[in-house]
Amino acid sequence: MLAQSFLLMSAVSLIASTSSCSAFEFKHHNNTELQNILEAVHQKCPTITRVYTLSETSVQKVPLYVIEFSSKPGHHQILHPEFKYIANMHGNEVLGRELLLKLADYLCERYLAGDENVKKLIEVTRIHLLPSMNPDGWQTATNAGGNDYLVGRTNKNNIDLNRNFPDLDRIIFSNELSHIEHNNHLIDMIQPETKAVMRLIMQTPFVLSANLHGGDLVANYPYDESRSGVASEYSQSPDDETFRQLALAYASKHADMSSPSRKGCGYEAFNFGKQGGITNGAAWYSIDGGMQDFNYLSSNDFEITLELGCAKYPAADELESEWNKNKDALIHFIWQSHIGVKGVVTNKETGLPIANAIIHVKNVTDNRNDEIFHDITSVHDGDYYRLLTPGCYKITAYYKGFYPQTHEQCVEAHPFQEATVVNFELRPLPVVQREIPTNIDPEYTDNDEDNSVNRQLRWFYYLNPSYTGMHNNY
């Protein structure tokens, strides 16, 4: 009897162990299997996931599927930063597609297993994964055997989606020549896949993101487009210091992206590991109409581009090895949406949140007095998120009809912790001053506010002409 009980307990234990293990298969999943994987993850983890499709399909009417991880799926939660990964933008660059499918499976699996790091990440972050932005290109590349360096790169209309976003860099560079120093939230034949992602960017207050490519091994940060128009020159953004840290956050956790001794890719075989595994986009080669710069210049989102390996279409038997190389980096990079400061902007008299308040930052570390001429805005519930490197800053919140308020805050590195909270309570101006708030810094006039805050709204309403409210879809 004792032996029978032992055998029964062992069998139950084996069944429980087997059921908790992932059934994920490392292979190249077709467009139907991609959807099935995401639905299976949702069925396993229904309380922390949601599967949805973007507003547009691909040219060949394939839905663009996203899986979301959150403690409250389908809703923006105050002080919970929003993060996204997008892969397979170039249809023949397929590794990122498989990595995001596995990442979805992994997050669910580790959450169910009680992994404290993963549980906390999901509880304090809203994570969106779009495994394939270009399913038509993937099908073309796969049908051709996945061996050609270009076949399947574009969408079915033969358009390179990473050259198809509005070229906001040109506006910014022109403003710089005219000594207009703020580049706050600034249409060609926009492809349906591009328009779908633009809507996603406008509707969701992303804080941080990355798009996953292939063909080299490097983390690439803005700007992607050169100022002078030459093929290659360092093109520094106002947040260059922060972008370098973000790129290093991924490269340093990848198995060999930052290794100076690894082999380089391509005919020139340059090893980006000799410079930490990172590069400024335009210093490598300039592109216009890229998704990376559009995110930064049209919204609050800081995006980098991840080149994940020399092979654009690696063999199926290499995928598990590539997952192991990227796993820690993929998780670590999501945590970077919690660097810097965050908080809520409210009306001091009513306590109500203020959306679209401007958050301006000055770096005062070591007696510096450096303005960072890239403001972000508070979102629907008055919450804001400002990514910053360790140091000390003067942070000012502005909104039309209110006195500005400034806090000085030092930021420290706290891995796997939430950002420092800095709240603002703005006091309304006297009624007689609200039309012309003369006591506000002249660099932040009503006209400048219109040029910064309302530019994002104009983009949103251009893409959503029948929309009646801002961010009501949270």
From TrEMBL:
It is found in: Secreted. Residues 27-337 form the Peptidase M14 domain. Its cofactor is Zn(2+). The active site is at 307 (proton donor/acceptor). GO terms for cellular component: extracellular space. PANTHER family: CARBOXYPEPTIDASE E (PTHR11532:SF93), PROTEASE M14 CARBOXYPEPTIDASE (PTHR11532). This is Peptidase M14 domain-containing protein. It comes from Laodelphax striatellus (Small brown planthopper).
